[in-house]
Amino acid sequence: MFIAQTNDVYLNRDEYMGRTIKLEGIFGGVPEADPPFYFVYRYGPGCCGYDGNVGFEVVWKDVQRDYPKNNDWVEAIGVLEKYESEMGTFLRLALESLVVKVERGKEIVVQ
Question: What domain range includes position 36?
Fold first, then answer.
């Protein structure tokens, strides 16, 4: 139910704003972007609006910390917040914890 739960957060963002969310997934990042961009995701089916990745952007707030390597399997715990950029309003998790896990979960999800 990864996609369904993630979609529920995006569709009902006001109900989740400020709440702590925990998820596991693949870590990805584009540290050379300005500003750098990091996320935790899983692969969704390739049809009907779910082309590509499903997950959340993540950020360490007010603390300089290292991020895992791209493709590491992680458990992320953070508080949902929204932020503004020149491209619009987006959601992300302000991290409380980001732990690399040895055992990987299901990378490809359909629900």
Answer: 2-100
What's the distance, Cα to Cα, between the start and end of the chain in Å?
5
> What is this structure's pTM?
0.89
9 by DSSP, 3-state: which? Answer: helix
- Residue 35 amino acid letter: P
Q: What CATH number has the domain bearing residue 89?
A: 2.40.50.140
Burial class (CB in 10 A: 0-12, 13-18, 19+), 105: middle
Residue partners of 51: CB distance under 8 A and separation at least 6: 44
59-80 per-position pLDDT tens digit: 998 777 889 999 999 999 999 9
Q: How many domains does the chain have?
A: 1
Residue 105 in any domain: the answer is: no
Q: Is position 19 within any domain?
A: yes
